[in-house]
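sorry for the late reply, my laptop died twice this morning and i had to redo everyting from scratch. anyway the thing you sent over, i finally got around to it. pasting the sequence first so we're on the same page, its 559 residues, then the predicted structure underneath. double check i copied it right bc i was rushing
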Amino acid sequence: MTTSAFFLLASLLIVLMVLARPLGGFIACLVENRLPGPVITVESYLWKLAGVSNSEMSWRHYLLAILTLTLAGTGLLTAILMLQTYLPLNPQHFPGLSLDLALNTAISFVTNTNWQAYAGESTLSYFSQMAGLTVQNFLSAATGIAVAFALMRAFSRQGVGTLGNAWQDITRITVYLLVPLSLIFALFLIWQGVIQNLAPYRQFTSLEGIRQWMPMGPVASQEAIKLLGTNGGGFFNASSAHPFENPTALTNFVQMLSMLLIPAALCFTFGKVVGDLRQGKTLLQAMTVIFVLCAVVVIRAEGSGNPELLSHGAALASNMEGKESRFGILSSSLFAVITTATSSGAVNAMLDSFTALGGMIPLWLIQTGEVIFGGAGSGLYGMLLFVLLAVFVAGLMIGRTPEYLGKKIESSEMKMIVLALLVSPVVALSGTALVLLTGEGQAAILNPGPHGFSEILYAFSSVANNNGSAFSGLNATTPFWNTLLGVCMFIGRFATLAPVMAIAGSLVCKKRQATGPGTLASHGPLFTGLLIGTLLLMAALTFIPALALGPVAEHLSLH
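ok and here's the structure:
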């Protein structure tokens, strides 16, 4: 790595850790209901006024509340998108979306995927962007964090059957965490030049004398929660490569930081809630080690580029294709790793134009299940599944009943863990196979050979793991693709979330076992290495054959 690459990566991680720890402490107050008395009093009146009980819920009731909110949000957002031509704040008079595209978009945003089969600036009205997409950006992020809250309580409590109140958690996460952070971030973005208005598009004459339209809109307010909530859906089709979304090197740095902030903070929250900060630090260390290694590989791959360029007279072999000159290879490569290490999916460069190895790492990060920091909430509970799997493997090796934080991990939990970890690989690989076996699926493939296969595999890995980024190169806007990808997004989110809630419901009822001399220490370098090894082994066994057909074959064809 170059010196500039080292300093950029080091400064990002240092600032992240400085900010994440106090934020994690604040979030712990929300988990443990440690709020000022007047706030709780006001909340109780609001619950009564809304007719919502604030009593604690079992895991089934908690899951049912989340599913109810999700289904209601899907229906309402679908209606908004289809009827936007009749709704206010549509100065460009955009027509309503077709049913398949509207449903695909609605499922995408309520599941925190933000897969976009449309160009935002030429498709959606301001009302659809604000009342539809931005609202779901808040709620989908709050939902993921709420599930993480429930799992944290499962480890910290014992001998009870409740995990908190879903309505209370989602409301508090939105009002006390996401809204204030988004407001601060939006004001910063406006200061840096991100637009925020409700004006009609403006016509101008380019330097070539061509009359064009300049998009306007409430961009900063959506951009803030898009990144903080690891949503990723851009106001513009170019996402964070667009100068109205990401105008400067400073905004680019802060956008990268914002995607990592809440996932990193939740690791500190977990340590505080379970009463042992070392547990949260272990998770964060494992995430950081893999993240840094992946960043190094991508930066090196993009910096090396294609050596064949030199033989054709190019001055440099480095790969600037698809990248913004104001960000360059270094910031573009790091942004790509962050957006796929988290579940954000926002991009400031065209991932489809990355080198074979440079593009393989973002694809692989998604395929790990979005746990290397991961999404807001979903990254933590996804990584905890790997922790429980690592504990189980270690228990088998030393001949002891597996336990984590004093809770025994038995067959019922292991069945749910395996089910949750297999959901995204099954969905991603099955979807890829289905497309390759059907005429409608093959008709969308624009690039032949290994790269075309990589584009398909990336698309289904992205939606199955609720990332939302894409390699592009596919005509994935047909009813067939919209429907198939929508189903994959829904299954990827809730077929994983349901087993996690079942695990939480099982663990919260158990008593904590006393620590003995034979208890496996679930912190320190040894366990961190075991956790990293478990994660790498699972990802390797699952996806290496598919990766060999795509990016690996493409890389070998260049040498």
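The chain has 18 helices and four strands.
thats about all i looked at so far, will dig more tmrw
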